[in-house]
């Protein structure tokens, strides 16, 4: 499903422009090459009329409606699953190609799941007029793993994620900030006993997140797994085109505002040394290698926050298997994990609309 090419710059809608990812999206649009003509900001009726800055221009948010998509070539959605499920097809009916950041269409066989560094050609195969953006946890690792897969051929991934509060949206950010403020001025010895004495309202999480880690992200699914854990498995398989890839994941929420981290044990069909893996990662698009353990240099969320790359370090060949490596990586879940990848997909579409 495509449109005729034109010398005129295509128009873009940002749906969910006032949300946590939406605001990052506006910043990213202002930073990247200007490939768009009109940019239209769309949100719920309660946000209509708000003024937001994008590309140095003050834009007025309009309410979500069928008419809001008239004249739009590409619509980027960052809204809850149920909103995307309802409104993405409407946007397509009004003439837009949709790039959706929700989980509503990710596993639909007629909707491509795209990471431009890995499978950009899949963006052209969109019979429903919709392209899906992967989950932020998957995106935080898949660029690096995709590069390694091309060289060494993946067989299995064992992943432990350390996910930031912002992965739960603005409520997650607000909950962690409130909990931190409650314990900030208290005696360290008292807090060490039980944070729940100070944190009564858990907010977006099932346990206190301040000074704690929670082995849970997402909702309960089959066999005790969470939705986040299954997304990493299913989405990695689809993006890499490897439906039988073995993937085991445990997702953990940590008291970090923004940037997801993952510890990955990857097994390949070919032998892989530490130096060979480092060489691939050094050259991989979208990857920053920071791996100097002798000088205690390795990626942390503080390094990755606000940046576009996946940061990789602690690369080691497995002690027990010459076809396996272990590594640690970090990626800003609001940028590459959501807004940036969506913008990159949209830019692939912009090329199609321009002569």
From TrEMBL:
It comes from Candidatus Planktophila vernalis. The lineage of its organism: Bacteria, Bacillati, Actinomycetota, Actinomycetes, Candidatus Nanopelagicales. This is Aspartate-semialdehyde dehydrogenase. Residues 11-126 form the Semialdehyde dehydrogenase NAD-binding domain. The chain crosses the membrane at residues 12-30. Catalyzes the NADPH-dependent formation of L-aspartate-semialdehyde (L-ASA) by the reductive dephosphorylation of L-aspartyl-4-phosphate. InterPro entries: Asp_semialdehyde_DH, Asp_semialdehyde_DH_beta, NAD(P)-bd_dom_sf, Semialdehyde_DH_NAD-bd, Semialdhyde_DH_dimer_dom. SUPFAM superfamilies: Glyceraldehyde-3-phosphate dehydrogenase-like, C-terminal domain (SSF55347), NAD(P)-binding Rossmann-fold domains (SSF51735). It catalyses: L-aspartate 4-semialdehyde + phosphate + NADP(+) = 4-phospho-L-aspartate + NADPH + H(+). Keywords: Amino-acid biosynthesis, Diaminopimelate biosynthesis, Lysine biosynthesis, Membrane, Methionine biosynthesis, NADP, Oxidoreductase, Threonine biosynthesis, Transmembrane, Transmembrane helix. It comes from the Bacteria.
């Amino acid at each position: 499903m495509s449109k005729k090419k034109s010398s005129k710059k295509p128009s873009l809608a940002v749906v969910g422009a006032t949300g946590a990812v939406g605001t990052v999206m506006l910043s990213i649009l202002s930073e990247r090459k200007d490939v768009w003509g009109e940019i239209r900001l769309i949100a719920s009726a309660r946000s209509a009329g708000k003024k937001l800055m994008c590309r140095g221009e003050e834009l007025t948010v309009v309410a979500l409606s069928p008419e809001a998509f008239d004249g739009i070539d590409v619509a980027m959605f960052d809204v809850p699953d149920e909103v995307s499920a309802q409104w993405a097809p409407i946007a397509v009916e009004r003439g837009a190609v949709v790039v959706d950041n929700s989980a509503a269409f990710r596993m639909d066989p007629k909707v491509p799941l795209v990471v431009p560094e890995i499978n950009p050609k899949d963006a052209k195969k969109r019979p429903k007029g919709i392209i899906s953006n992967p989950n932020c946890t998957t995106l935080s690792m898949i660029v690096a793993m995709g590069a390694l897969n091309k060289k060494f051929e993946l067989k299995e991934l064992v992943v432990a994620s350390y996910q930031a509060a912002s992965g739960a949206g603005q409520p997650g950010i607000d909950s962690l900030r409130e909990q931190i403020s409650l314990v900030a001025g208290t005696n360290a010895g008292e807090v060490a006993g039980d944070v729940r004495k100070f944190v009564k309202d858990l907010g977006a999480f099932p346990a206190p997140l301040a000074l704690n880690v929670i082995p849970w992200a997402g909702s309960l699914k089959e066999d005790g797994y969470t939705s986040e854990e299954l997304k990493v498995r299913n989405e990695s398989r689809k993006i890499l085109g490897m439906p039988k890839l073995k993937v085991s994941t445990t997702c953990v929420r940590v008291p970090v505002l923004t940037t997801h981290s993952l510890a990955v044990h990857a097994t390949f069909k070919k032998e892989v040394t530490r130096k060979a893996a480092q060489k691939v990662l050094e050259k991989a698009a979208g990857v920053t290698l920071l791996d100097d353990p002798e000088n205690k240099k390795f990626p942390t969320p503080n390094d990755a926050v606000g940046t576009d790359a996946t940061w990789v370090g602690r690369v080691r060949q497995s002690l027990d298997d010459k076809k396996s490596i272990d590594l640690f990586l970090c990626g800003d879940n609001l940028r590459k994990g959501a807004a940036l990848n969506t913008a990159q997909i949209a830019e692939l579409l912009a090329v199609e609309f321009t002569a």
